[in-house]
Every structure is written in structure tokens, then in C-alpha cells.
Design brief:
The protein is α/β, with parallel strands linked by helices. Helices cover about 45% and strands about 15% of the residues. Helix 1 runs parallel beside helix 2. The longest helix is centred in the middle third of the chain and has 29 residues. It is globular, with a radius of gyration of 17 Å. The two termini are about 30 Å apart. Belongs to the short-chain dehydrogenases/reductases (SDR) family.
């Protein structure tokens, strides 16, 4: 079990799905957790209450993490409420399902801003403090679409491939500062995005079922707990990645 007592974690997009499972797992390991959300205040507060009922510390903090000013305010508020951020999980993202013919410039720009630019903004906002303390864990939630065709569209592929590039770039430059940077690339996890039409059946998954948010959280916790692993992307696909 990863031991995070005395640590503070920020999970972007932490109000539901994979982010919710990660936030609760971090709290179970002893971390104080900031649950970021853009919409869904009630859902974020439910995650906070779940953590608090189990004896943990948590706050819900609204912010659009694709906006620099809001990210700065988010990190400042977390610092005031819980303390400096030791663990950052860049989970916030959108999946606008578009065909090549339907895809617009607005769709592309929005996807890159939410899925990729947010990782840059949040990482830049926390690494100074992590460097000062010589300890930090950054985990980016990518997707199998970073390397495969995916079902959402090329804009989504590009955003997640860029995220993995940021992961490697930051890992190489922060490795001497006690900061690890890794990614998890899930495919077809049973979340709202999948239920909304991305995949109606798990038939093409070799394991025969969708993954769960809790299984994603297990991999995140492994990365947070491993001080020797950095610059890596862990695929979580029920066997699809080696077909």
C-alpha cells in the first residue's frame, strides 16, 4: 500500500469516473486531496464527503484547467486549504466524438486546450514547490488513442499523443529533482464517455469486459508509490494493446 500521510494531492476532473476513483484511492493512502471540477459541484462535493466520512481530508475546488489564471488560483487555493501540492494527477479531459468530415477548428482547439494545454499549465504551476521539497509525483491520464486509431477522432488522438510527449519531456528534465512523471493510457473504461456511445459492447476487448475506474486508480497508485519509474506510459486495455 502506497503511504501518503502528510502529502497533498490534486486530481483535475476529479468529480466522477476515473478521477473520482483516483481521488478516493489517494485519500485511502493518507493524502489530503483536492478534487478539481469545472461543472458538477454536487458530484465533487460527494467525493469530498466520501473521503471525509472515511476520516480523510479533502476539498472541492472549481477551475477550468485550460485557463492559466484559473490554474494559478486553483493551486493557490489548494495550498491555503490543504498545503503545497506533492501529487498531481492530470485527469481532466473531454472526448468530442467527431468524424473527419464533422471535425471543426473549434472542436480541435477546445480538445487540445482541455486535454493537453491543461497538463502543461498544471504541471508548470506545481513543479517549483516540488523542486523545493525534492519530492513530487505527476501522473497524466492518457488513452490508448495516443497510439491507436481510437473511436473519438484525430483531435483526441493528437491531444493524448501530445500528453505522452509532455510526460517524457518533463520526466527527463525533472528526474534530478526527486520528481517522477508518468502516464496511464486506459482504453474502454466503463465511464460516462464510453456509455455515451464510444463503445456499446466490450466484444472487441480480449479480456471480455470494460475496465473499471478502480483498476485505473490502482495503476496510478503504483506510479505514485514507485520512486524509480519515470517517463513511462502504462497501457491498461484488457489486452487490446498487443493485438
Amino acid at each position: 500500500m502506497t503511504e501518503l500521510s502528510g502529502r497533498v494531492a490534486l486530481v483535475t476532473g476529479g468529480s466522477r469516473g476515473i478521477g473520482q476513483a483516483i481521488a478516493i484511492s489517494l485519500a485511502e493512502a493518507g493524502a489530503a486531496v483536492a478534487v478539481n471540477y469545472k461543472q458538477g459541484s454536487a458530484e465533487a462535493q460527494h467525493v469530498v464527503e466520501t473521503i471525509q466520512k472515511a476520516g480523510g481530508r479533502a476539498v472541492a475546488v472549481p477551475a477550468d484547467v485550460s485557463k492559466a489564471a484559473e490554474v494559478r488560483a486553483l493551486v493557490e487555493e489548494v495550498g491555503e486549504s490543504l498545503g503545497p501540492i506533492d501529487v498531481l494527477v492530470n485527469n481532466a479531459g473531454i472526448g468530442l466524438i467527431r468524424t473527419v468530415d464533422e471535425l471543426t477548428e473549434e472542436d480541435f482547439d477546445l480538445t487540445i486546450a482541455v486535454n493537453l494545454k491543461s497538463v502543461f499549465l498544471c504541471t508548470q504551476a506545481v513543479i517549483l514547490g516540488m523542486r523545493d521539497r525534492k519530492w513530487g509525483r505527476i501522473v497524466n491520464i492518457s488513452s490508448g488513442a495516443a497510439r491507436g486509431a481510437g473511436g473519438i477522432g484525430p483531435h483526441y488522438n493528437a491531444s493524448k499523443a501530445g500528453m505522452e510527449g509532455l510526460t517524457r519531456g518533463y520526466a527527463a528534465r525533472l528526474v534530478k529533482d526527486g520528481i517522477t512523471v508518468n502516464a496511464v493510457a486506459p482504453s474502454l473504461i466503463e465511464t460516462d464517455m464510453v456509455r455515451s456511445g464510444l463503445a456499446s459492447s466490450p466484444a472487441r476487448i480480449p479480456l471480455g469486459r470494460f475496465g473499471t475506474p478502480q483498476e485505473c486508480a490502482q495503476v496510478v497508485m503504483m506510479l505514485v508509490g514507485n520512486a524509480y519509474m519515470t517517463g513511462q506510459t502504462v497501457a491498461l486495455s484488457g489486452g487490446m494493446s498487443f493485438l
